[in-house]
Design goal:
- This protein is of the alpha+beta class.
- It is about 35% helix and about 10% strand.
- The protein has four helices and four strands, in the order E-E-H-H-H-E-E-H.
- A four-stranded antiparallel beta sheet has the order 1-4-3-2, with helices on one face.
């Protein structure tokens, strides 16, 4: 997918397993809350997106997305319900594991939802999601840097006290 504003390509995953993708449509950016089970989709993204590094993990991620936004029953299973998948081997097993949604967050990510703007999301072209990292605000970066520096100064002080003759040494830290 190509972002016309920046001219940059964008990696995106299909949302609707029943509709083909078309490159002849302009997409509108919608809210991820328009998707079924958007909270669970956000959990999946925050827990597993950093692990999507090859074709197997990308296929697992795609299967998990389809399962979350397509299935309507309780819980997630690739074996029954509205969405069922087979023949994906290790990617399918990985998707099943990821669908437990019990992992630790590996990042803070934003989901961008793109839909066909011509016919008001009437399944004429594939709806897509893209994922991007949410950068830390400048104040948070500054605070983390200050904490790291304070930890370094504290560690140096402890290390210097443990050396023989350290009682006579003085250290000064300038910030």
């Amino acid at each position: 997918m190509l972002d016309k504003g920046t001219g940059q390509s964008l990696i995106a995953w299909c949302v609707d397993v029943f509709t083909a993708i078309s490159n002849k449509f302009d997409y509108t950016v919608g809210s991820p809350s328009q998707l079924n089970r958007s909270d669970d989709l956000q959990k999946l993204v925050n827990q597993r997106y950093a692990q999507v590094t090859d074709t197997k993990t990308s296929a697992a991620f795609q299967l998990a997305i389809w399962e979350i936004v397509t299935d309507t029953g309780g819980g997630y299973s690739l074996n029954n319900g509205t969405f069922q998948a087979s023949g994906f081997g290790n990617a399918q097993a990985l998707a099943r594991e990821w669908l437990k949604l019990d992992g630790v967050n590996t990042g803070n990510y934003k989901i961008s939802y793109f839909y066909d703007s011509i016919l008001n999301d009437k399944n004429t072209s594939q709806n897509l999601i893209a994922v991007s990292a949410v950068p830390l605000p400048g104040a948070a970066v500054l605070m983390l840097s200050a904490l790291g520096l304070a930890g370094l100064v504290s560690r140096r002080r402890r290390a210097s006290k443990s050396l023989p003759g350290a009682e006579h040494q003085h250290s000064v830290a300038a910030i």
